[in-house]
Design brief:
Number of strands: 3
Distance between the termini: 49 Å
Radius of gyration: 19 Å
Number of helices: 4
Largest sheet: 3 strands, antiparallel
Helix content: 40-55%
Order of helices and strands: HEHHEEH
Oligomer: single chain
Structural class: mainly alpha
Length: about 90
């Protein structure tokens, strides 16, 4: 397996590209261009859950959803609210 030598210039270039990508994401979020409604596959990817787990979250009422023409949509803000409401914090003495 051939090895590559990474220089400080390579790292600097990577850092600049990464910062540009982060700035674009922040700007996109600030302007509200992020998707309001997500499909099931997008929610599964975001939460790293299986289809069965997502169905359980729907059935037990944890995740509110809307069904239009056989496609299930989830409000991105409601998912964030559920995640915030179920946040667990452990006290460290």
């Amino acid at each position: 397996m051939p090895t590559s030598i990474i220089t400080t210039d390579d790292l600097r270039e990577f850092k600049m590209e990464l910062l540009d990508d982060i700035k674009k994401l922040i700007a996109k979020q600030a302007t509200g261009n992020l998707k309001k409604y997500l499909k099931s596959s997008e929610v599964m990817d975001a939460l790293q859950v299986s289809p069965g787990t997502l169905q359980n979250l729907r059935v037990n009422g944890t995740l509110p959803y809307t069904k239009v023409g056989g496609i299930i949509y989830y409000d991105a803000e409601e998912i964030q609210s559920v995640m915030t409401a179920n946040r667990v914090q452990h006290k460290v003495d």
